[in-house]
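User: I'm putting together a small comparison set for a docking exercise, and I want a reference complex before I start. The sequence is below, and the ligand is dTDP-4-keto-6-deoxyglucose. Could you produce the 3D structure with the ligand included, as structure tokens?
Assistant: Of course. I'll restate your input first, then give the structure tokens for the complex.
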Amino acid sequence: MNLSNNKITDCILIDISSIQNQSGNITVVENNKDIPFSIQRIYYLYDVPGGGERGGHAHYELEQYLIAASGSFDVILDDGINKKRIHLNRPNFALHIVPGLWRALDNFSSGSICMVLASHKYEEKDYIRDYNQYKELKKK
Ligand code: T46
């Protein structure tokens, strides 16, 4: 399988619109309308212990929207050349992570929830979990 040569600049922060009123807000993500891929899976990270880190891998095919559904955390994106740290702290913002990017998540606030809208079902063979292997694949 070839690894995409996507760069960190291909990952953008999207302001998903929210419907606001005095009783609270609602944000909607609808396939083929608010997101550039079809959602095949939703998962969320929570109860991450203080100082904990998640991620630390890349995907061949999977693309995702990462949303701070509650609280905040940082996402560190790495394309093998450049790195960027992005702070997510609002439920109406999604970070679009395209295939072929190394990502790690840290700096989770207490009670935070990282919700992930994903383009594919879970497949371990879609993961690259070794950073040196990732760097080699990115050079090809
Ligand atoms: C990502 C970040 C943000 C499953 O069985 N099914 C699933 O759909 C997922 C996501 C995980 N798992 C299993 C595989 C491992 O035994 O749950 C365990 C923990 O998964 P992982 O170490 O991949 O968790 P994170 O938090 O490091 O990464 C996850 C996603 O895997 C990944 O796509 O981008 O959240």
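The mean pLDDT is 97. The first helix runs from residue 131 to 139.
User: Thanks, that's exactly what I needed.
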